[in-house]
Amino acid sequence: MKKLISLSAALLLSFNSFAGEVYSEFPTQIKPQEKYIFYSHGYIVEGDNPKPVNTKNGWGLYDFPAIKAALADESYNLIAFHRSKNTDPYKYAYELNKQIRSLVAQGVDAKNITIMGFSKGAFITGLTSDKVSDLGVNTILLAGCGRLVFKQHTDIKVYGRVLSIYEKTDKANTCKALKTKSTQAESFEEIAINTGLEHGAFYRPIPEWVKPVKRWIKAL
Q1: How far apart are the first and last CA of the chain?
Q2: Which secondary-structure segment (H or E) carries 138?
Q3: In terms of DSSP bridges, do strands 22-23 and 138-142 run parallel, antiparallel, or are they unpaired?
Q4: Closest Cα partner for 216 from 106, 159, 141?
Q5: Where does residue 119 fall: left (phi above 0), alpha (psi -120 to 50 degrees), or beta otherwise?
Q6: Domains of the chain, earliest start first
Q7: What confidence tens digit (pLDDT) does each residue in 33-61 have?
Q8: Pick the residue with more confidence: 152 or 130?
């Protein structure tokens, strides 16, 4: 009996060990039973430098590698691309849409897919959520309701289960307007943090936003 229990435990450990990968490119081998999280960084990281510094607004270092390390978790796979300079958000959202549909076509449940982004990355995430409205994947917006609620984007809505986190001292504030128009979202939760760091609150993996993001993902 002990041998049987040990064998079962070993098999469970072996199965779980496959999750928790961090990908900088779309994975070539998809594991249908696992969760996949897409993280889209802010505009300042576009280009060649994964650790740029914002001196204009005093927000300091954007530590993309540290954010990826903090978001990584053994319960899901993290996909975090480093976008090229001046990426067209509409074209990029279309590519993410194709990748999400590829995951679903290979057996991944749409409820096990989460798209997440900060600032411009959140705008891309919102556009992508709109494009995959028929799938209803999970959506996380970090300081995301600047451009998404502009008058020229009033037709953009988000779908599935949605989480918005914003910093109270940031101009990119609450997503209430997006929530109001996203009538087909399965759920829409919003969390306000108050660090005094403005937009820079999401430049580094501080507990105020990382912990609720990971907690929300794990509860899905």
Answers
A1: 34
A2: strand 138-142
A3: unpaired
A4: 141
A5: left
A6: 19-218 (3.40.50.1820)
A7: 999 999 999 999 999 999 999 999 999 99
A8: 130
